[in-house]
Design a protein that fits this description.
mainly alpha, 10 helices, about 80% helix, elongated
Amino acid sequence: MAERRRTEAVDEAEVLAQVDAAADEIYALAPDEFSSARDDLVRQAREQRNQPLARELGKLRKPTQSAWLINLLWRDQREVMEQLFVLASELGQAQAAAAGAALRELMQQRRQLENALLRRAVELASQAGVRVSDSVTREAQETLSAALAVPEVAGEVRSGRLVKPATYAGFGGAATGGATRPATPPRAPIDLQAVQRRRAAEAERAEPPAAADSEGPAGAEAARLAEEEQRAEAERRAEEERLAAEARRRQLEAAQQALGAAEAELRSATRAAEAAVQRRDDLRGRLETLREQLQRLEADVERADRASSEAEAAQQQAQAAHAEAEAALAQAQRDVGSA
């Protein structure tokens, strides 16, 4: 019995591994290719008489276009998105600490990263032959915002198998479709205000009496408390400096990531501008050629008009001469008849 349970556990682990590998493949496909690819895998599993695998594969749900866009973005920009998640955590800390300047700077960095990621997602979709509408882009942006605010949505995004968009109203949970892997809990943010309150309370409790005798047990206790207070204050300042340095480092990394995304966008825009200039120059060249051809045709038409006028004049003269000849012939015939 124990051997059979071990075998079943091994088989189940193997099935899950196969499902993971298959899911990684088909969730990277365009949405209109998903169902046929999944059904092919289910059919192959059934032909191999692997019913557990066929059953698990059949549970994989087709993603909406906006969810597919987020999955595509996660596969291509995983490190940048992780940096954005960290930036969102630091933004929450800055909000809790009411750090106005830091809060504004972090919000600006977050907007820059979000916009750069969404532009990259649309570019990736275009490379895959999928045209993304404005409504789908808005859904993807709402899902990304929800992932930055709700750990469960962030876990679904990290799975790369999001099937439905998510929204976040600014409080409570997010409405989402769910993914095939469990959510990954993020690192809990540090509450700077709580740290400061705790340090202040410890310092207040450790404050020595003002008139403490420097000799004897009371003086020793006062010295010990003063030393502990100094040590606590030094630890508090060191913690604050460490947090500030960490925030600056992450801000620098976020700025570098944003710069990289902006440079990629600039390169793409430069290529598009160069192509547009080349096409404009080509069209101008064609226009000049057509203008020259038109001028030649107009000259030909003018010459043809003059030739036509001259031919008509010659025709009229010939007609007059013909009429005179006919009249002369008639007169000659009359003269012969009367002789």
